Amino acid sequence: MGFAHVFRASVAVLVFFVPSISFAVDGDLTPVGTVGKKEIVCRLSNTEKIQLGILRGQARRFSPLQKYIQSKRKRLEGTKLKQFNKKWRKNQRRLRALCEELLAPDIQPVPTPTPNETPTPTPTPREVLFFGNGPEVDTIDIATNTVTEDIFQSSHEGASNVRAHEFSKELNSIFWSDYFDRTIKRKNLSTGAIDTIISGNSYSALEVSPEGKLIYSVGSRLFEFDLLAPSSPQMIADTDFFPIEAIETGTFSDQLVITTWNKVGIYRKDLDMTTTLFSIPTGDQIISSSVDTSRDLVYVLFFGGQGYQLVKVPLTEGEITPIPLEILPWFFAKVVYDPQTQHLFMSDRDSLHELNLLGHELRTIELPHEGFWVEWFALRSGTHSILYGLEYPSQILHLNTRVPSDSGVIVQALSFVGDLEFDEKMQKLYWRDWGKSDIIQAEVEDPESAQILRHIPTGSSSSAGLALDSRNGLLYWNEGPDISGMLLSVPESQVNFPRTEGGDNSCLLSLDPKNGQVLWSDYDYQLSSSNAFSVIPEVGFVEQLFSGEFRVRAIISGHVSDKLYFIADEPFPGQSFIGVFDRQSNELTQLFTDLPRPMGLALNSDETRIFWTDDALDTVNSASTAGGASEVIAEIPGAALFGIEFGLVQE
Predict the structure, then answer these.
(1) What are 301's strand-pairing partners?
(2) Taking a C-beta distance cutoff of 8 angstroms, is the pair 417, 438 a contact?
(3) What is the pLDDT of residue 226?
(4) What is the per-residue pLDDT for 524?
(5) SS3 for 256-307, per residue?
(6) Per-residue b/e over 222-240, b at no fewer than 16 CB within 10 Å?
(7) Across residues 449-456, what is the average pLDDT?
(8) 199 touches 182 (CB < 8 A)
(9) Cα-based angle 129, 133, 139 (whole degrees, multiple of 5)
(10) Which residues sit opposite 298 in a β-bridge?
(11) Which of 583, 582, 631, 640 is nearest to 609 (CA)?
């Protein structure tokens, strides 16, 4: 492997020699790349020079170069391996510098001011921190520690994570519990108004009786709230069912059928007693249940050693009877009995199946969505009208199977700003919305300028991460098994490169501008360990950085040093820490330990200060990158703190 930098009178050529792969840039700025026998040509102008990044990204990781590097590294160990890796990184930096020099736009001379002109003083940029606070982006002025809230707002109506749900035809309202907000909310379908009914806990099950009584669970306890004559909620039972995950009214109004992960029971208000109707062995799991009051039955769908099984369980004395299934449900399926048709409905990832009571499929109802799976559904005033919810984004939708034009979104998802990037030159802010899997761009000087650059229909909140390459005008993100990217000047463009290294949960974390590398981590649930990697997008070369028995959730590269700062969760006793990895010495040090729930990580321009958010303490914190004591620079009670980013804002 080597370089050839050749200059001629009229043509400058840069050639990068590797096995079966080469790149050349001639004098009229027409880069040519070959992978094997395949030739790639991309015309560049001075104003579009960052297209070179797209060209170089065509060299996939599975190229002969990658195989050559991996085989070379396997034959080396100890000091020789470190020297090889160091030489490889040095050559990559040299190649990047030569390409940038060759493709640099024509330099325009700066006009010299005449004696009568007074140069305008350049204003000093203001140091700020951008951070995600639930559905909004807030800022902190570092000089004064002044918090300015709600700079950018991209939320809609109020569903952030639906844990439980209920439709009341008597009140014509939808009720749901919000896991993140710790509330129970209601939307009146007649007026469109949304209000909070109960707050302060994580509510896992809901039921609304025809008499207007809201019954909900907190752990093993049952509470009742009168919606028609509001007063303080009353605890009606403290059962031995934990946690209660579903509540339905039984055959009589004084009966409640309650379900946990491994048993179904009935609570009788008049006797203040809970009786177990059905249970399964430890290791099996109940997926869903639904009551048929006309037959005194509850249908139970569960998963165990015999696979998926559907049974009907009597609410009184009687025999438990299996129902054969013609279709195979998925793990988050839900079964609902419809009293109008006396049929069963069972959900799939993107559809509903209508079954008769013998388990025979009668029809399949396709549910329109944006690449996400159905988490729950409910029947509304007849089988032709269906309510259903999506986990990511967490939305409540309505489908009218007879009148499709009557379908649509009833409750929009709240956004969750999880990852932030700031382009100081362009004064633009980018963030990734965990709630709706959107990538959003905004002008810092214009709060109304937020616009969606990309929607990721196949993603989820577990696929986090955003990495901005401001030098080349590229934005990268995690998308399923791949790392994807776009050219910001052409938002519809797409760059993909797969990852050969894999774990149970992969997360794109940051960009290392010093070495031109994208950083990410893989987590292995079985081993409770993380591996952190870097990849050079131009050629797909992957290098393992470090590993450990912890879960890496954020990485940021030092602007000055060759160090990586990261957040990690320890498997036991469950605390988190902020560490630093020195790429020169391969040393890993814990800077700050015993942190409750650090989420975002940022560095200032000269790498002397490090900042992070803590979602458990509702704080934004600062400390020296050398370690020592930390300080709280902002405390925001009730906040949902996720990503954070340092920026110099021009006045």
Answers:
(1) 288, 310
(2) no
(3) 95
(4) 81
(5) EEEECCCEEEEEECCCCEEEEEEECCECEEEEEEEEECCCCEEEEEEEECCE
(6) bbbbebeeeeebeebbebe
(7) 85
(8) yes
(9) 25
(10) 291, 313
(11) 631
pLDDT at 374 over 70: yes
- Amino acid residing at 109: P
- pLDDT for 26 beyond 90: no
315 closest CA partner among 261, 257, 260, 259: 257
Report the chain's mean pLDDT, rounded to a whole number: 80
Strand order in the sheet with 221-226: 205-208, 213-218, 221-226, 234-238
How far apart, in whole angstroms, are the C-alpha atoms of residue 331 and residue 271?
Answer: 35
**C-alpha to C-alpha distances, 61 to 68, 70, 191, 539, 541, nearest whole angstrom:** 11, 11, 55, 7, 6
Across the strands, what pairs with 181?
Answer: none
| DSSP 8-state secondary structure symbol assigned to residue 29 | S
Q: What type of residue sits at position 137?
A: V
Quick one: tokens of 222? 């049952």
Residue bearing tokens 């207007």: 212
Contact 514, 527 (CB under 8 A): no
- Going from the C-alpha of 291 to that of each of 28, 123, 295, the distances in angstroms are 74, 69, 9
pLDDT grade for 280, boundaries at 50, 70 and 90: very high
Structural tokens at position 336: 């609902």
- Residues 509 and 532: their CA atoms lie apart, in Å, by 10
| 3-class secondary structure per residue, 369-433 | CCCCCEEEEEECCCCCEEEEEECCCCEEEEEECCCHHHCEEEECECCCEEEEEEECCCCEEEEEE
C-alpha span between 595 and 489 (Å, rounded): 40
Secondary element (H or E) of residue 103 = helix 78-103
Long-range (24+ apart) CB contacts under 8 A made by 233-238 are: 233/198, 236/269, 237/267, 237/269, 237/272, 237/274
Element (H, E) at 96: helix 78-103
State both tokens at 487: 């050219």
- The tokens describing 600, both together, are 């975002």
Would you say the C-alpha torsion 446, 451, 454, 460 has a positive or negative sign?
positive
Q: What is the pTM for the complete model shown?
A: 0.62
CB 185 within 8 A of CB 208: no
CA dist., res. 115 & res. 159, Å (int): 63
Q: How far apart are CA 161 and CA 176, in angstroms?
A: 9
Say what angle helices 78-103 and 64-75 make with each other, to 10 degrees: 150
In the predicted structure, residue 457 carries a pLDDT above the cut 80: no
Alpha-carbon span 439 to 274, nearest angstrom? 49
Other CB atoms within 10 A of residue 305 CB: 9
Weakest-pLDDT range from 252-256, 266-270, 455-459, 531-535 = 455-459
Q: pLDDT tens across 139-165, in order?
A: 999 999 899 887 886 555 567 778 888
Q: Cα dist. 179→165, 183, 289, 440, 595 in Å?
A: 11, 7, 21, 24, 23
Residue 649: pLDDT band (50, 70, 90) is very high
Percent of the chain surpassing pLDDT 90:
40
Strand 630-635 versus strand 213-218 pairing type: unpaired
Strand partners, 3: 16
